[in-house]
Amino acid sequence: MNDWFMYFIVFWAVVMLAAMTVGGYFMFRKFLKVMPKGDGKSKLDWQNYWVDRSRPMWTDDSKQFLAELVSPVPTPFRDIASHSIAASIGQVAIESGADTVTRGHCIEGYIKATPKRDYNSLMTFLKKKNIDYSPYNHLFNK
Fold first, then answer.
1. What share of the chain is helix, strand, coil (3-state, %, to 5)?
2. 72-122: pLDDT as tens digits
3. How far apart are CA 59 and CA 68, in angstroms?
4. What distance lies between CA 49 and its chain's CA centroid?
5. Per-residue confidence band for 137, with pLDDT thresholds at 50, 70 and 90
């Protein structure tokens, strides 16, 4: 009986250590996003800048399309992903000199905001939704 209890305690110690390690990893990643870069602004500051600057350019159609694009993201992370992708879309729209955010801007910003490791699932999702991304194939090669 005594050995069983000791193994139980060791098991829970390992589980707790693993949970704290995973949590610490994600906290550290968030901490790195808030650290200022060479220009004095953090990645999060730039995201907020592009979202705020492009806010009047968004139409109901582009907002709905953004919601459709972030639908495969798990619900707890969807708001953060939506903000990050909206910042990239806003940057693309502003730098192109557009008056409104179009579906083309949304697709291009979505591709640019997606990490390279997720390109296969991104292309699968776009194909499944019958979204033509062929004009943006060059973005996948960067």
1. 75, 0, 25
2. 888 988 999 999 999 999 999 999 998 999 999 999 999 999 888 888 888
3. 14
4. 16
5. confident
For residue 72, give the amino acid letter: P
pLDDT > 90? residue 9: yes
> Quick one: pLDDT at residue 39?
83
With tokens 């193994």, the residue in question is: 7
pLDDT of 20 reads 95
Please state the length of the chain. 142
Could you please report the per-residue DSSP string of 78-123? HHHHHHHHHHHHHHHHHHTT-SS--HHHHHHHHHHHS-GGGHHHHH
Determine contact, residues 35/42, Cβ cutoff 8 Å.
yes
Q: What's the rounded Cα separation, in Å, for the pair 41 and 34?
A: 9
